[in-house]
Design goal:
single chain, alpha+beta, 5 helices
Length: 161
């Protein structure tokens, strides 16, 4: 089977139940997938063998479409891709089909192994130290604060202010 035969068989199966733009999107996806795999060194026949029967792929696409329709008119689809560059920066790209959302959205996280963990632990120690000191001071001041609050409350009750 050739790439064109594979895509034609897939198109025939999808045309039965999907709209033309959805069929075109799926055909374009598989055409690009095959082209990318061939550029990476696989033969066309290897890629097509790995993909399998186009009728099974079409059935899966149609089943997913049917499930989406059963969930109601509004359906959000988001695909997330995480990549790491040579500097150890992880990038998350989220593509969303939600109305009003135009992907991709980028998030970056610097990560370099044990250094990140060391920094996180040091930050947590500092935060716990600061909070511990603040609560220790407040705990010592608590009786005076309660007495002061009681005096203010009594003053307002007596004066009517």
């Amino acid at each position: 089977m050739t790439k064109q035969e594979f895509l034609d068989a897939l198109r025939r199966m999808l045309n039965r139940e999907l709209e033309a733009d959805e069929v075109a999107d799926n055909i374009q996806y598989y055409s690009d997938y095959i082209d990318d795999a061939v550029r990476k060194g696989k033969s066309e026949s290897q890629v097509l063998a790995e993909l399998g029967d186009p009728r099974m792929i079409a059935r899966t696409i149609l089943d997913v479409d049917e499930q989406r329709e059963q969930q109601g008119a509004y359906y959000e689809q988001a695909d997330t891709v995480v990549t790491e560059d040579e500097d150890g920066v992880y990038r998350t790209e989220e593509y969303s089909e939600e109305p009003g959302e135009f992907g991709p959205r980028h998030f970056e996280v610097k990560a370099s192994g044990w250094k990140v963990w060391l920094i996180l632990i040091l930050v947590l120690i500092v935060i716990v130290g600061i909070l511990g000191t603040a609560f220790a001071i407040l705990w010592k001041l608590l009786p005076f604060l309660l007495i002061g609050a009681g005096i203010v409350w009594i003053y307002h009750r007596v004066t009517g202010r």
